[in-house]
Amino acid sequence: MLGFFLEKFVLPFGDWYFKTEFMKTLKEYRKIPFRSKHELDALQETRLNAIMKYAKENVPFYQKLEFVLTGNALEDIKKFPIIHKSTLREVGKELVVGSLEGKDIICQKSSGSSGLQSEIFLTQREYLRGQAVQTSFWEWGGFRIGGKILQLGMSPKRSFMKRMKDIFLRTDYQLAYNISDEVVKKALLKNEKRNPDFFIGYASALYGYAQKAEQLGITGIKFKSVISLGDKMFPHYREKIEKVFHTKVFDTYGCTEGFMMASQCEMGNYHQISAQNYLELLDESGNPVPDGEPGFVVVTRLDAHKMPLIRFYLGDIAIRPKNPQPCACGRNFPLLEKIVGRDTDLVKTPSGKILIVHFFTGIWEYFQEIYQFRVIQHQLDRFEIEYIPDPSTFKPEVLSRIHQIMNDKAGEVLQITFKQVDQIPATKSGKPQIILSTLEKTVSNNL
Questions:
Q1: Which fold has domain 2-340?
Q2: Which of 69, 87, 128, 157 has the fewest Cβ atoms within 10 Å of its own Cβ atom?
Q3: What is the CATH number of domain 347-437?
């Protein structure tokens, strides 16, 4: 009954008031996956041609490039340069159409989980289209608007719109970066009485909660489903979460730059959202890799016009199935066989708290004086943080401020040594590794 009321009245009113299209987009993406493969291919090609034409005519960065579009989408896309996060830092404003003034402009900063942060700009309408696509992902995992949610996130300061979302979507929002015995016990015991339907959050944070719940003997919570996002859902994460919370995990693949790229269906397969994104898997030379072989993920969002990102390099590695078969779920979006991420590791404090990668990125993102960083832990009682400063803005006292904020958020004094370096080594995927811990064996990322 509540879900019906929200979908028929509250959410449409919000779209009317804010001039957005959340419900329209959600309804669209409830149907699109079940179109024929031919229809989906044609839709993607039409949208890809349109966004490339728009970008070439309106985006200063692309206007300078000397090439002509022919209308052959699969060939024209190769004419665009690959955009890296470093490119966004250097020429980001040249990728924006028009002014950045106005209440409807949203700045999205990447989580920085690679240690290298970027920012993109969306209109409120584009942002909520992305949220609608994400909600459709959640519905594949059983989510229904009106169901009660326990959500782990990184936004302690909830904006008006987010507070309204929490109220109307019955969300108990808990911070993901402080996973201590006290915090987890309080949150889970509260929700054991509340009886939530869905548990949503970063994969590593969900795993941390499952670990703590098992240690604390909190076994009375059973979710209809757990929906993971934000970082890699490793097999040992999935096994622990499903065991402790008596449910099934549905994993999603997206990024803060506004791309909602893939999601698991009921059959456990990852479907790539071809109606909103054009996804390429390339080798180190920029050539497409054959199906069945790993390739670097390069993605183009098809419905973002404020800051069109054509061929955005994520740094992840993915694999398409060599001999894809139609999925029994009935959705005809193309399949991804495997999404290869980095094990962000889980570092621990002397008191036993678990700190996930977003604990660190949620702090460091506010200090633009630091270009890149990496956290190293070889001993339980101390960390070493390597950092590359921005030579034009860096002052040594910023490290003391960062250290104090980390202590405050962790709720204890962390023994930290800061070390300035010239380079942070990359992993096989090309992403710098933000956390390196040798305290216990970690999952290999070997392909």
A1: Rossmann fold (3.40.50)
A2: 157
A3: 3.30.300.30
